[in-house]
């Protein structure tokens, strides 16, 4: 390990290692610092992604895929089920291996990765970020870098250290909890299950994602508002007692998901933020793996180019590129989320009843949103923007 790099990245999640890969690809020197002992562990994630999303970055490999998804089964508060065949295949990942593989891909292109490296501060020079301070195996160290990329996840502090406004309104910070359980034998392996309503997950949803061999990720997210009054884990406990009292719980994780628009500023002199640190999660679904990787790709490419051309001001271009690629779309998803999450149980039941009249071959996610928002013309325009005009 040297003491100077072109690009230093804090965090080896999918956003950080993707940024590393795209920066290293351009021949600049890159180091990724990860506080945990292992890349990819612990896993705090439902692990659901779209196959097309993954394919932008890496060829799907059965080594890190637990299930191939072709259908959603959405369950209304009264128990009515709505089957939605998917236009595009989904995947349930084995993130422990997926994250590890992404780090190896970045390393193949020359990026260095250092685990047990806890970053606790930034170095500033001439009013710009110029490196990181960290503790590695108990020893205080420093790395100087032309560009620092903060990929330190939902609890990110890197942006704050650089003076960026990173606070998320507590109502938009979904409180999530999940178990991976064995003995879940009544679900189909090609189907993701979603439960809606006050009993399961008010202002959010509960999910069951198959993981093969009778195991599944079962979790839920509720808004910060709801979480203040009743904890996410107590909703999950009630569900498990009712539906899977005999399930063997293999792991339990909890975490926040920033279901909101991206931060206004995701760059500062010498600094870029990617993934959850930049709040690049899809606010409607709560999915942040692929969108974080997209943020990582844009940031990594731009950082590499900025170093190569010796024009560090070029990093500010990243904000514009993100806005074009996903930022604007996330703004629309956020409005749709606000329009949907406060639906009453009766409204969810009515949507299920109407949508079940649509023939299976005509069911699409866009049509489902149209049914849900039929009485809300301004949001119908948003639905058309994101689901019709792709
Ligand atoms: C319960 C739950 C379920 C979810 N389900 C899904 C899902 O099904 N699909 C989906 O797409 N998304 C899901 N998400 C969201 C998804 O997990 C995140 O959006 C995604 O992991 C973001 O990637 P990232 O690289 O930005 O951050 P992370 O994956 O969180 O990686 C950040 C890394 O930075 C490291 N780090 C943090 N601070 C420091 C520091 N000071 N020094 C060094 N290293 C540091 C961490 O150890 C970590 O490895 C879920 C989230 C939760 C909580």
Task: Report on the architecture of this protein.
The chain is an alpha/beta fold. 32% of the residues lie in helices and 30% in strands. The protein contains eleven helices and 16 strands. α1 (14-24) packs parallel to α7 (289-308), α8 crosses α11 and α10 runs antiparallel to α11 (377-388). The protein is globular. The model has no long low-confidence stretch (mean pLDDT 95). Flavin-adenine dinucleotide is lined by residues 10-16, 33-36, 44-49, 118-119, 151-153, 176, 178, 219, 253, 255, 257, 275-277, 281, 287-289, 292.
Concise synopsis of the structure shown:
By secondary structure, the chain is α/β, with parallel strands linked by helices. The protein has eleven helices and 16 strands.
Mind telling me the CATH superfamily name of the largest domain? Answer: FAD/NAD(P)-binding domain
How many beta-strand runs?
16
User: What compounds sit in this structure?
Assistant: flavin-adenine dinucleotide
Distance between the termini: 44 Å
CATH topology descriptor of the largest domain: FAD/NAD(P)-binding domain
How many strands, which pairing sense, and closed or not: the largest β-sheet? 8 strands, mixed
Structural class: alpha/beta
**Any guess at the CATH architecture of the largest domain?**
3-Layer(bba) Sandwich
Q: What would CATH call the class of the largest domain? A: Alpha Beta
Helix and strand string, N-terminal first?
Answer: EHEEHEEHEEEEHEEEEHHEEEHHHHH
* Average pLDDT over all residues: 95
Q: Please, how many domains?
A: 3
Contiguous runs where pLDDT drops below 50 for at least 5 residues: none
With helices defined by DSSP (H or I, 4 residues minimum), what is the helix count? 11
What portion of residues belong to β-strands? 25-35%
């Amino acid at each position: 390990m040297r003491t100077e790099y072109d690009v230093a990245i804090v965090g080896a999640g999918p956003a950080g290692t993707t940024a590393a890969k795209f920066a290293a690809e351009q021949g600049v020197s890159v180091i990724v610092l990860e506080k945990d002992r292992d890349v990819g562990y612990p896993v705090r994630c439902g692990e659901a992604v779209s196959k097309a999303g993954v394919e932008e970055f890496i060829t799907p490999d059965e080594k890190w895929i637990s299930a191939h998804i072709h259908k959603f089964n959405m369950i209304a508060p009264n128990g009515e089920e709505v089957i939605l065949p998917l236009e595009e295949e989904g995947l349930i990942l084995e993130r422990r291996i997926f994250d590890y593989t992404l780090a190896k891909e970045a390393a193949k292109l020359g990026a260095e990765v250092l685990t047990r490296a806890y970053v606790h501060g930034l170095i500033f020079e001439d009013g710009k970020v110029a490196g990181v301070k960290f503790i590695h195996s108990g020893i205080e160290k420093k790395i100087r870098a032309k560009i620092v990329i903060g990929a330190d996840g939902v609890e990110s502090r890197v942006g704050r250290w650089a003076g960026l406004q990173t606070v998320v309104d507590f109502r938009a910070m979904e409180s999530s909890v999940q178990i991976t359980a064995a003995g879940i034998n009544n679900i189909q392996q090609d189907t993701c299950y979603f439960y809606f309503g006050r009993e399961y997950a008010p202002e959010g949803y509960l999910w069951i994602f198959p993981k093969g061999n009778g195991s599944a990720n079962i979790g839920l997210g509720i808004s910060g508002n709801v979480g203040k009054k009743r904890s996410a884990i107590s909703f999950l406990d009630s569900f498990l007692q009712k539906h899977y009292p005999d399930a063997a719980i293999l792991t339990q994780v909890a975490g926040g998901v920033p279901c909101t628009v991206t931060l206004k500023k995701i760059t500062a002199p010498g600094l870029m933020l990617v993934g959850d640190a930049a709040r690049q999660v899809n606010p409607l679904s709560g999915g942040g793996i692929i969108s974080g990787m997209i943020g990582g790709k844009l940031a990594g490419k731009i950082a590499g180019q900025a170093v190569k051309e010796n024009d560090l001001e070029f990093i500010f271009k990243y904000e514009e590129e993100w806005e074009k690629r996903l930022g604007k779309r996330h703004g629309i998803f956020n409005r749709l989320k606000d329009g949907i999450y406060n639906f009453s149980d009766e409204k969810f039941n009515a949507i299920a009843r109407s949508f079940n009249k649509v023939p299976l071959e005509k069911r699409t996610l866009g049509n489902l949103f149209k049914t849900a928002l039929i009485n809300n013309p301004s949001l119908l325009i948003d639905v058309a923007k994101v689901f019709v005009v792709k």
